[in-house]
TrEMBL record:
GO terms for biological process: proteolysis. Its cofactor is Zn(2+). It comes from Glycomyces lechevalierae. SUPFAM superfamilies: Aminopeptidase/glucanase lid domain, Zn-dependent exopeptidases. This is M18 family aminopeptidase.
Length: 421
């Protein structure tokens, strides 16, 4: 039996199941926030000025939520994350096929390890934008698509390594017969309960259907799709809801879409979305006042990182070997691929001490550079002290990722430590 209170991780599993796309993640986060007394604000509305309260706003799969616990604002404590995940996006005209099979044309979204998506039952989820501009979420929550692997008899060298062509060899099947134009989108519209003629745009993605699960003799491991980075979104959400006493510091959750493809959209970390929200929260046109409060602020960028892989230990930095079950990591990079210098390390340690949790350090090998995060982007964009953190996981970007079952709760504790210390 597990040796820890698994309520947080159970709730993470439910959050993941309800959030197959960034748009669903924002909707589910909004539902939870409203249940906790938060009010949704549209960017086109006037926002409350100089009032205490709890609010959130959504833009294109990104969400910013905050609490004002005092009429006097000293600064912000921001917990940053991202809502998107590497997968396949349905193309605008998706109906295609070959050799008597109906197929769906897709485009690779982000850094997808192709092999993990083969021979797996997939569904489709996303959003439809209607003639009048309304947004309708859709999730076909049953097996619908599959990318079939070529039989070993027809590819005897498959176990010696196989490079798949993203255009011709990763097209999922979904039926038999000759495809016809409009069939797939007609089907999706019917699933969403809308008229296909009124659908003027769509963002649809393939979805891994395997439900989250605990693994191991003692259930000390947790497997799911979208651990990267719904673990962080969920942790920040839980911490923000709990952060009722932060004095003159305003706790903020900022979860951005499009991190996996570079963050260069009007709603992503490189956009003015967060800066605009912070300025409106302060309710002042006085740049001096804004600059003082930004200088008194701090941000924690949370994203998953690579746990040491037992079958490939040589791919990891030998002096820093984070493992699942030992707590969140601070990510350090001399070249600032992660935002973590000495000041930032101190911010992390103060937050971890306030949370009373174990923690680890992650550093890339000099000859194997890792990815980056929203941390350097948002920190530079805003001029805010920013530290990069995250959970150690295996199988990053796979259709099935793996972490320590106790670590998601510790990440939420770390976020609360940031908000309240």
């Amino acid at each position: 039996m597990p040796r820890f209170d698994r309520s947080h991780t159970d709730d993470l599993a439910a959050f993941i199941q309800a959030s197959p796309t960034p748009y669903h993640a924002c909707a589910e986060a909004g539902r939870r926030l409203e249940a906790a007394g938060f009010e949704r604000l549209a960017e086109t509305d006037e926002w409350p000025l100089g009032e205490t309260g709890a609010y959130y706003t959504v833009r294109d799969g990104s969400i910013i939520a905050w609490r004002v616990n005092s009429p006097e604002i000293e600064g912000f404590r921001i917990f940053g994350a991202h809502t998107d995940t590497p997968t396949f996006k349905v193309k605008p005209n998706p109906d295609t096929g070959s050799a008597g099979w109906k197929q769906i044309a897709v485009e690779v979204y982000g850094g997808v390890p192709h092999q993990t998506w083969l021979d797996r039952d997939l569904s489709v989820a996303g959003r439809l934008v209607m003639r009048d501009g309304a947004e309708v979420l859709v999730h076909v929550d049953r097996p619908l698509l599959r990318v079939p692997r070529l039989a070993i008899h027809l590819d005897r060298g498959v176990n010696e390594g196989q490079k798949l062509n993203a255009q011709s060899q990763l097209t999922p099947i979904w039926g038999l017969g000759q495809p016809y134009e409009g069939e797939f989108l007609d089907f999706i519209a019917a699933e969403a309960g809308v008229d296909a003629d009124d659908v003027f745009g769509h963002d649809l993605f393939t979805v891994a259907l395997d439900p989250p699960a605990y693994l191991g003799k003692d259930e000390e491991l947790f497997a799911a799709w979208r651990l990267d980075n719904l673990t962080s979104v969920h942790a920040g959400l839980a911490a923000l809801i709990a952060a009722e006493d932060t004095g003159e510091q305003v706790p903020v959750l900022a979860a951005f879409n499009y991190e996996e493809i570079g963050s260069m959209t009007y709603s992503a970390a490189q956009s003015p979305f967060l800066e605009s929200a912070l300025r409106r929260i302060l309710a002042t046109d006085d740049f001096e006042s804004y600059a003082q409060r930004i200088a008194a602020s701090a941000m924690m960028s949370s994203d998953t990182g690579n746990a040491i892989h037992p079958n490939y230990p040589e791919r990891h930095e030998p002096g820093h070997r984070p493992v699942p079950g030992e707590g969140p990591m601070i990510k350090v990079s001399a070249n600032q691929r992660y935002a973590s210098g000495a000041e930032e390390q101190a911010l992390f340690r103060r937050s971890a001490d306030a949370a009373g949790i174990p923690w680890q350090t992650y550093v890339n090998r000099n000859d194997i550079p890792g990815g980056t995060t929203i941390g350097p982007i948002s920190g530079t964009q805003l001029g805010i002290l920013t530290v990069d953190v995250g959970l150690p996981i295996l199988s990053m970007h796979s259709a099935r990722e793996l972490c320590g079952a106790e670590d998601p709760g510790r990440l939420a504790d770390l976020a609360l430590g940031l908000f309240t210390h």
